Amino acid sequence: MEKTRLGRTNLQVSRTAFGALPIQRVDFAQARTILRQAYEGGITFFDTARSYSDSEEKIGYALSDVRANIFLATKSSGATDRASLLEKIEISLRNLKTDHVDILQLHNPSELPDPDDPDSLYGGLLEAQRRGMTRFIGVTNHTLKNAIEVARSGLYDTIQFPLSAISAAADLELVDICREHDVGLLAMKGLCGGLITDARLAFAALRQYENVVPLWGIQRERELAEFLALEADPPLLDDEMRAKIEREKGTLAGNFCRGCGYCLPCPVDIPIPMAARMAFLLRRSPSAPLLTPEWQEKMHRIEDCIECEECKERCPYGLDTPVLLKRMLQDYVAFEEAIAAGKTPPDWSAALA
């Protein structure tokens, strides 16, 4: 497994890293199988968060005996100040069965904390570092302005930000900024929440940046096997691949949901991260599992929307989520009717027009 230096941390981490959010969806036995296979395949960097239900516990269960050989990163989900951050990291350490993490990250703050306030979240990071609970500190964010501020501040060792084959040029400027300031850059959402279905393309697009460490969200053994195979024989980013990336950008450009989940919870239980991407999912993955009576009921919950706009306010990408959901429902119904009538489903772009 090829390794790379993670900015000023000087950690030599595997260039393929494991994003552990999805393992909360499998049981402990399956999680252990996947995590051990990842470790045995050469992956040394594992990223989780306090808010990923039992993800931390599963990592502790599966990898505590090889802790000296891996790097662990977690996030201060739910912390609002120094005291609550220290409380959260103590829970994380117990779950992970370790006395320290390698990187402790602030979890998508809307505003960066005051570095001069000892009781702020930043004060908590420094205290956790002083106590030996973490070696390095960082931030995760979905807002480019905040990410650039983190990279240029000199206060943090790493930044985690969504980067993928279809990232805008402005987002990709962060790669050079992090290189210039020697900040480790962790790339989340490399598959755009599952909307990019070609793993080779996604892998090659990020592999061209030596200072970028992608965190591939892995839930199944076959997904892991695919990324390990790509790591063993990295695909070449040739003209054909670049042309395909441009086509993907054209298809997925605009107001699409990345599936980050920050919109939740919904007061009427609309499964927003799936429902807001439904037009894409129906056409970029097998549609039958999304047309079951269970999913029909879930999609029609959109009709119960109370227009509270909490999802819109929470969206880090500034999407008008209620409007997007209604368009997705219209497309869903039209898709269902076309399939039932034996006709070609309507163009997905009509849902986003």
Q: Could you characterize what this model shows?
A:
Helix 2 (55-63) packs across helix 3 (82-96) and helix 5 runs parallel beside helix 6 (169-181). With 353 residues, the chain is of the alpha/beta class. The chain folds into two domains: 3-248, Alpha-Beta Barrel (TIM Barrel), CATH 3.20.20.100; 272-352, no CATH class. The mean pLDDT is 93. It is globular and about 65 Å long. It has an eight-stranded parallel β-barrel, surrounded by five helices. It has a two-stranded antiparallel sheet with strand order 1-2. Strand 1 (3-5) and strand 2 (12-14) form a beta hairpin. It has helices at 28-40, 55-63, 82-96, 121-130, 144-153, 169-181, 199-207, 221-232, 239-252, 272-275, 278-284, 293-299, 310-314, 321-340, and strands at 3-5, 12-14, 17-19, 45-47, 71-75, 101-107, 134-140, 158-162, 184-188, 212-217.
